[in-house]
Amino acid sequence: MKNFQNLFIAWMVVWAVFFLYEVSVALRMGRLRDEIERLKRQLREG
Amino acid sequence: MKLRFVGTIAAALLIMFAGYAALFIAPEERTMHEIQRIFYFHLASWITSFTAFFIAFVANAAYLATRRAKWDWLGVAGAEVGVACCTIGLITGPLWARPVWGIWWTWDARLTTTFILWLLYISYLLLRGLIEDPQRRATLSAIYGVFAFLDVPLVYMANRLWRTQHPQPVILGGSGSGLDPVMSKVLLVCVIASFGVMTLGFLDRYRLEQLRHECEELRQEVESRAIESQSISKKGQT
Fold first, then answer.
1. What is the pTM of this model?
2. CA distance B230 to chain A (A)
């Protein structure tokens, strides 16, 4: 298949960008959830 | 949580089927042959990107009219998902161009306005990171977002208004344009798959902004309590 390499890279780019974006959002959400928990604990303990 | 899991599985299956359809079901194009199959991911990413930027534009305008934080969250979610899809379009474009045009990139009207669009929304996201005060951040980024969107119709019209290296539109391009019926169906599947993934990203990004807002409120409460207890202890000393 001619130019299969470019076609394959394009397909991988689609997956990689979607996957990395989802991972980045999940990591940021995780950090914020930890921070919220920490602040709530701080407020409870006075 | 269960709905989110089902949504993720459905989007992953859809994008796998879209990939299969683009690579094996769509007929081979007569002049470009196999490399033309990039078209299905390339165009789908642009349609998704423009839709996300349009949502961001509406949300930014609505924020300026109402000053409700929810519009700001929607605006940033649209801009970020739009940038992700725009990045796919900007990478798959040159991968397609190299074997067909013999060059990776050229500064024609379509490609230049597209690159500017990407830079505009990257700047939008950077701008948000530089301003700490939430209200000021939301107002300035909404104003900026409304102006940034002006480049979207320019990108769309660029190869209709000027002679460009980028081909003339195959869809909605007037007489002589159009797609083979099987190609149209495969493109539709790819667009739906892309929209599915965009929706997941969009909902997550919106939730992230909600959490950030919650976090900021809690921080303020902790700070105000700390100030309160300090003033009480000072009074006790005097």
1. 0.91
2. 12
